[in-house]
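Archive maintenance. Older records in this collection stored only the sequence; we are now back-filling the structure field for every entry so that each record is complete. The fields below show one back-filled record exactly as it appears after the update. Entries are processed alphabetically, and Icc protein is next in the queue.

ARCHIVE ENTRY
Title: Icc protein
Organism field: Modicisalibacter ilicicola DSM 19980
Length field: 240
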Amino acid sequence: MRLIQITDCHLHAEAWARSRVGYPLRQLRAVIERAGALRPDVVLVSGDVSQDETVASYRLADEAFSSLGCFWSWFPGNHDQPRLMHELHEIDTEVDLGAWRLLILDSRVDGQAYGALGEAQLERLAQCLEEDDRPSLLAMHHPPVSIGSEWMDAIGLMDREAFWDAVTPYPQVRGVLCGHIHQALALRQGEVMVYGCPATTDQFLGGSPAFAVDEASRPGLRVVDMHGQRLSTWIERVEP
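Back-filled structure field:
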């Protein structure tokens, strides 16, 4: 089973719109072309699909992801409008990966850059894990760990300790996929790895105390292969 994560597209209604250092739609299309060549079973889009929160931007995204010809799922980030997304393509909370499963959490907080899961959602997550002991991947937009970047950590997942309290009793949790940080990341929290993914648009400079764009890094995606009880993952980058 091969899952490909794509994240932080930040599309505008205008196909030719420019970001700080590139053209978001052109870069997304380059990433999708590479994703298709890697023959995924599932593509996961982990938030901040839009920059301007317009119907037109989501239509561009829907067209691009649908061109892959495989199952794909998206969920909102702090820049997104979930209602507009859902009208075009369903927002899933769980994806059956055969011997594995993917549980998707909504960390978006209306009107805020930071994220939170909330007590009710964490209770539902624990119940899901209690009912099924298959190896599981969790996904959310905001990282549930400190990434060592002061400005980004201030807008990460605010209830990260409660999240780890909820999942630590369940050894079937094999990894957490997140977006939001616009950079590759692999950090261990206890027995669980947390993986960040390059954006399809601008990359952020890792370890920077203040906001900074990494102009040397390229757009990319994360590949996750699940073999039996084991997981392997790596980053692929493209020329924008």
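Update note: Residues 135 and 172 are 5 Å apart (CA to CA). The radius of gyration is 16 Å.
Entry marked complete.
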